[in-house]
Design brief:
The protein is α+β, with helices and mostly antiparallel strands and 125 residues long. It is 28% helix and 33% strand. The chain has a single domain, classed as RutC-like (60s Ribosomal Protein L30, Chain: A, 2-Layer Sandwich), CATH 3.30.1330.40.
């Protein structure tokens, strides 16, 4: 494990915001918490998606890379039929012309007020 770097390890949970190994950043599932809190950025998928992506941007920056180096994203939606289109618009605005691999699935999330969770894999820049 000497060649694995933990990015922002949680003092309370058994995880890090990301890990780095062999030039690849693995970002843990992020949700739309306002920075430094466990308060949601809003009660709709767009506000949560925007905050989730901002939180991912911050983690990627701390790891030494950016969204332009994302290889793959996994998107988990509580209400996939209802929220897919709005999430997809938000996601497209975040990425611009970059098109990493992606999967999107409907799931039950850790708290009832969480509507979206996103994880990703990125190359170091």
């Amino acid at each position: 494990m000497n060649n694995i770097t933990m990015v922002n390890p949680s003092p309370a949970l058994p995880l890090s915001a990301a890990t780095i190994h062999n030039g690849v950043v693995h970002v843990s599932g992020a949700v739309g918490f306002k920075p430094g809190t466990t308060d949601m950025a809003g009660d709709d998928v767009v506000s949560q998606c925007r905050q989730t992506l901002a939180n991912i941007d911050a983690t990627l920056a701390e790891a030494g890379t950016s969204k332009q180096h994302v290889i793959r994203c996994g998107i988990y939606l509580k209400n996939i039929e209802q929220d897919f289109a709005a999430m997809n618009e938000c996601y497209i605005r975040w990425l611009g012309d970059h098109r990493p691999a992606r999967s999107t699935v409907g799931v039950q999330l850790a708290r009832p007020d969480i509507l979206i969770e996103i994880d990703c894999i990125a190359a170091l820049s």
